[in-house]
Amino acid sequence: MAHFDLPLPELRTYRSGTAEPDGFGDFWTRTLGEARAAAKPVELTEVATPLRGVTTYDVTFTGYAGQPIKAWLNVPAGASGPLPIAVEFIGYGGGRGRPLEWLLWNAAGYAHLVMDTRGQGGNWRGGDTPDPDADGAGPSSPGFLTRGVRSPETHYYRRLFTDAARAVETVAELPGVDTSKVVTTGKSQGGALSIAAAGLVPDRVAAVIAGVPFLCDIRRAVTVTDSFPFQEIVTFLRANADRAEQTFATLDHFDVVNLARRITAPALLSTALMDTVCPPSGVFAAFNEITSSKEIDVYDWDGHEGGRAFFDTKTLEFAAAHLLS
């Protein structure tokens, strides 16, 4: 894929034209308040694995509306003292998979909480968390972007963003963790959730890492790429042309550009100039809203793989600079 978006000098100054919806802050304050009011204590069960250097716990915490969300907690075996912790979110269609798929952060000396993604895990890395509110949300195209799109109240990502924020808050209930050293992290959808969680509970997050984040500048993304998942919105609007205004008004509540400006922690993002899944203009739109200290890695010749091990290395270096110094 050739470079298809704005030239890099224009990307570096690009700002989204999407306005923050009226009542946006109140919407999220109310949503998180309801989730906290319905919360139950976290459940941890140690799990036997073939891994000798890592201790694994099967975690259940409560997310949106007090609904149970699964996670893995991997901790370096024999670690002493409170550890910094990475809270990781998963890319589109994936679930938490198996514990041995998540060893990078443990190898670097961190505790690692991997949140399962409600209703996902059918495309890669199986999942274990249902989405109880998926039924009755009105028509949608296959996938998650238009599920419940008739209203912000019923949209799928209202539930998932809340789960992500609650995962960060759950850190306070985990043993052996330094709650002052929490990094949110993830790629693609996971990157969007990393930004969202850091914007929703900024006082709980010490660093933010988002690789090629999804859900950035949604209104523009659907006009510059033919790739899925953004094409789900186009598919839906072809069948429901009279619902375009309502659809985008709902999606504005889950455009992470509107949550990026609430981040207070140091942030590292990445983008790839050949990435048609998460166009670089969207990533820069989110990046340019962040007012805390920030860095962005740009990969000229990558698509959605977004830097691969090069960015993984930068991720650990960035986290160490802000959490281990």
TrEMBL record:
Region of interest: Disordered: 121-149
A single GO BP: polysaccharide metabolic process
Pfam families per UniProt: AXE1
InterPro entries the record matches: AB_hydrolase_fold, AXE1_dom, CE7
SUPFAM superfamilies xrefs: alpha/beta-Hydrolases (SSF53474)
Domain of life: Bacteria
Binding site for substrate: 92
An example Gene Ontology molecular-function term: carboxylic ester hydrolase activity
Active-site annotation: 188, 275, 304
Residues annotated as domain Acetyl xylan esterase: 1-320
PANTHER family found in the cross-reference section: CEPHALOSPORIN-C DEACETYLASE
Protein name: Acetyl xylan esterase
